[in-house]
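Lecture 7 notes: from sequence to structure.

We start with a single chain of 117 residues. Read the sequence below before looking at the structure.
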Amino acid sequence: QVQLVESGGGLVQPGGSLRLSCAASGITLSRYDMGWYRQAPGKQRELVATITSGGRTNYADSVKGRFTISRDNVKNTVYLQMNSLKLEDTAVYYCNARKAFPFYDYWGQGTQVTVSS
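Now the structure, written as tokens:
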């Protein structure tokens, strides 16, 4: 059984930092492209950051220079370091593991990030 379990969310003031973790079981993360997505109330889920199995990263323009995605294949975990948080970063953050051939697509249950003064 595949599980992606996010943790590290919480309440933080604007300008603060959080580090999200996504721990996988049932799959070997090194074989997957990993991503963080977020969904704010009343909005569609959007891409935040991705990291390929080879380590190439990609970021949404809104988080470039503030967020960093990384992976620890030994711990089978992916991270999202979020700095200089803004009110508009408030959302539920989801971890995604994806592989093209054969196709697999797994999601975590999400972790709430609230940026508020």
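The longest strand covers residues 91-99. Keep this in mind for problem set 3.
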